[in-house]
Write a structure and sequence with these properties.
Layout: H1 2-40, E1 46-51, E2 56-59, H2 61-67, H3 71-74, H4 86-100, H5 108-116, E3 121-128, E4 134-145, E5 151-160, H6 164-174, H7 178-182, E6 188-193, E7 198-201, H8 203-209, H9 213-216, H10 228-242, H11 250-258, E8 263-270, E9 276-287, E10 293-302, H12 304-333, E11 337-341, E12 347-350, H13 352-358, H14 362-365, H15 377-390, E13 392-401, E14 407-418, E15 424-433, H16 434-492, H17 499-530, E16 538-541, H18 542-559, E17 563-565, E18 574-577, H19 579-595, E19 602-611, E20 614-621, H20 628-633, H21 654-664, E21 668-673, E22 679-688, E23 715-720, H22 724-735, E24 740-745, H23 748-758, E25 762-766, H24 774-783, E26 792-796, H25 801-810, E27 814-817, H26 822-847
Parallel strand pairs: 17-19, 23-24, 23-25, 25-26, 26-27
Antiparallel strand pairs: 1-2, 1-5, 3-4, 4-5, 6-7, 6-10, 8-9, 9-10, 11-12, 11-15, 13-14, 14-15, 16-18, 18-22, 19-20, 20-22, 21-22
Helix pairs in contact: 4-5, 10-11, 16-17, 16-22, 17-21, 18-19, 19-21, 23-24
Amino acid sequence: MGVDKNKQKLESAADRRESLSEVRSEAILLKAEALQSAIFNSANFSSIATDARGVIQIFNVGAERMLGYTAAEVMNKITPADISDPQEVIARAEELSLELGTPITPGFEALVFKASRGIEDIYELTYIRKDGSRFPAVVSVTALRDEQETIIGYLLIGTDNTARKQAEEALLKAGALQSAIFNSANFSSIATDAKGVIQIFNVGAERMLGYTAAEVMNKITPADISDPQEVIARAEELSLELDTPITPGFEALVFKASRGIEDIYELTYIRKDGSRFPAVVSVTALRDEQDAIIGYLLIGTDNTARKQIEAEQMQLSQRLRDNQFYTRSLFESNIDAIMTTDPAGIITDVNKQMEVLTGSTRDELIGAPFKNHFTDPDRAEKSTKQVLREKKVTNYELTARARDGKETVVSFNATTFYDRDRKLQGVFAAARDITERKRLDQVLHEKNLELESARSVAEKANLSKSEFLSSMSHELRSPLNAILGFAQLLESGEPPPTAAQKGSVGQILKAGWYLLELINEILDLALIESGRLLLSLEPMSLDDVMVECREMIEPQAQKNGIRLSFPQFECSSFVHADRTRVKQVLINLVSNAIKYNRAGGAVDVTCSVTGEKRIRISVHDTGEGLSAEKIAQLFQPFNRLGQEARSEPGTGIGLVMSKRLVELMEGKIGVESSVGAGSVFWFELNLSAEPQFALDVAEPITPHHAHVQHGTAPRTLLYVEDNLANMQLVEQLIERRPDLRLLSAGDAILGIALARTRQPEVILMDINLPGMSGIQALEILRDDPLTAHIPVLAISANAMPHDIRKGLEAGFLRYITKPIDVIEFMEALDMALERAENDSVNKNHGGR
């Protein structure tokens, strides 16, 4: 019997404990239901809860408002995937499959896959309303689990992202949705029971306050982490405001919310480490189904940033005041007398300099007519009227008169000024002592002198550049003269060179002439860049040039196995250009097209009229073509676009020269190309009318070679040259002329002496000689009756056009440039001998 009683007592105790546990569970459930109700009854969020398969079980009022469906229309019928953009769902499935390395089926699985794996998931997709319209939504997904952590469904909380800011405000005011807030690190979400003891302390609260949830839950109230003095002050303020006593502490923080009054306030939170930060706190009372308060939700944001902004605004306000002070300081410290007047000419403000100029105080000036402070009031008044009429006046001379009678001539400058509504306020004027303007004029004059001096220096620099180019030409051509000259002698000497020697000599000549071409192109380019290249622009026949170019370039095409075609003109076409330079450009383009073509390829030259006054010459090739990158590098000096390793010779200057020359002839050049399709290089020139020539054409001049009769004594050639290699070259050339003997001199002084004593038939004179130039020596020879009649040929490595022109103007019969072309040299020599022979015959006939 005793055992049974004990057993009954134990069973009764167990029942009581079980009953107590049920009561507590019901209380917790009641709180959770109240919190859940606050979330699901919000119209600002779509809260959609599904079962484990994704079929919608809950569809809150926010979802109905956003999507246009009623809950009855979707619950137990469709999944959230059915109201989402299908393409976005497919794309999300693909992205997640790549991201997570596992195949994910497009559909509801793609929307909840991360949440099903315990991964926080917030994403954006497009929801489709019942009426077919769409809107972007930000969706937060949470897996719903039972006590055994088995997934029993999913909660999808969405916000209309087109009004995200409004949704965030609604989130703060309404307490928002549990998962959206309590999982946010940007808000401190603290939920309490009815007594204020903390029950929930989210990650945002942990981050802001430094406590872990375990350290505060069921232990303290939010008042314990708030500034106590502020809590006391808030209690006093609310007591006065609501006319009821309020106890300092947690009650002061939630009193308004407990009365159903919206409450957002600012206080200072105290972190675990004792540091403080300002926070804005929104308080919401949590109620059960009977509207009884079961707790409070305090959502806080760190207000430090706003405080900083307010501080910055205060700084800006102070800065504005500082700027106003600074502006006034500038106004006052200006060296000019400054004033403002109203539209009637009454002074409204002045600076210190105006007081000094007029000898009056600021109080005496403000309110007085502007014109009264000048010797000619009418002229002063006219200046004001002119400003109002023309909006400004500059350098208007007036004479200011001070109280003590001192007069100062000033340059008056003024403009109108307006308020923010563009209403005329008056005239802003400055008066400067005219002596200051004179000082500025003197400064300007000095600057002009400096500019003139700089221009002179630039001209001297340009002259130095020309002299350098001429000197460089000479220094390069002098040794090259010996190389090419002796190579030509070896090539045509007796006995003839062996095959191996002839090949070697050929390589020397090829390299030498190539180097000469490079020197010429570099010097031509330098002339163009310095603006000193002279062109003869006149009407010229384009078809004649085409014929000449074809004859010149045909051998190169045949040698390379390239088919070459030029246009056939039905009638002559004339362009306004320099004939020589047009040939240079066309030969360069056609030569390039041949060199860089494929084996058995073709080059076609065509012409087409592009406008009333333009003609385009195009060179088509069947080469490899150019990429866009290479086309961008065209027309750059020495850039051969990677062709340096090929056997075709080239300087990398031809296209640059062609571009400059075409532009100097007022034309345009360009290229059209693509890899594998060949290239078309073209240039355009201005068309011209056919020139009209006179009918009487002079008889053509036939070349005449000097000769010597049998038994006649050889004639003497005096060669004045300081370069031994050049001297030896000419000696070997003259050895081939039995009618000539060579006399040499190493400088101009010796050459002049030999000319006087030996009376040579012809003199060959180098230009650059030690001590005295060839031009100076020529002047002495022309002034001496003993030598004035002797023909003098110039020979020089100075091959610039202005060098040649200068030599011919000085009186040389011909100007031979180094390296020597043997045929040209011999022709010039024969011409000079013929001139000497004719002069001798005329002299003898005159003597009779």
